[in-house]
Specification:
The chain is α/β, with parallel strands linked by helices. It is built from 6 helices and 9 strands, in the order E-E-H-H-E-E-E-H-E-H-E-H-E-E-H. Helix content is 34%, strand content 20%. A 5-stranded mixed beta sheet has the order 7-6-5-8-9, with helices on one face. The protein is globular and about 50 Å long.
Length: 213
């Protein structure tokens, strides 16, 4: 195993790739709560945190576990990166095409059950806010035929096949679903890993706060 994913106990985030030093380049890129990876102390910290979360969940103390979890919406990139891709209809979409709108980019996979719920929620948001927001549903590690079936079932979103290069542009995405939210200037407003219970309410509230009255 050469990379660590985001790690959850049920739907509670325990650690993100950045916590293991797997994010970004340059100064501070390898720093995280559990680095250096080969250190016995780092391993002990991770095992202790993971064990504590498991114990809390098994005891039914989920609120206490969530209070101790790292923030699920801590943004790992500062702004919508420069990119170009083609959607499933063969139409090209680039960063500049999205300027002036609230942008949501969802990385998902066909084998991920929680992704189905987040995609349907995003379709509801797209219908509610129309052209004031732009939603891209980017599939990774999935067969295109399966992605097309899901796109047909969900509807209302712009679906595309992701590439390793695109995932790296967004901080080397290694967990699904991962949802990025950007304001109309392209600045990162939030990033969500997994599908926490508050995801739908949080994204809706953030969008309303970002849109002009």
């Amino acid at each position: 195993m050469t990379r660590y994913p985001a790690i959850f106990v049920d739907d509670i985030l325990v650690a993100k790739p950045k916590d293991f030093g797997f994010y970004g380049k340059g100064e501070g890129a390898g720093d995280g709560r559990y680095t250096p990876l080969k250190s016995a102390g780092s391993h002990d910290r991770f095992r202790a945190d993971l064990t504590r979360m498991i114990d809390l969940v098994l005891q039914g103390r989920r609120d206490d576990a969530r209070a101790q979890a790292p923030p699920a919406d801590a943004a790992e990139i500062k702004a919508l990166p420069t990119f170009t891709l083609k959607d499933l209809d063969g139409k090209e979409v680039a960063r500049e095409d999205l300027e002036g709108r609230v942008v949501l980019v969802e990385f998902w996979a066909t084998w991920c059950p929680p992704c189905q719920g987040t995609l349907r929620h995003l379709a509801e948001l797209q219908k509610r806010y129309g052209d004031r927001i732009a939603v891209l549903a980017v599939a990774i590690e999935s067969d295109e035929a399966d992605v097309r079936r899901m796109a047909g079932a969900v509807g209302g979103l712009r679906f595309a096949m992701g590439t390793p290069e695109l995932a790296r542009a967004f901080g080397d995405v290694s967990a699904v679903p991962t949802l990025f939210l950007f304001d109309p200037r392209g600045k990162t407003a939030a990033a969500y890993y997994g599908a926490p219970p508050t995801l739908h309410a949080d994204t809706d509230a953030r969008i309303r706060a970002l849109l002009p009255n």
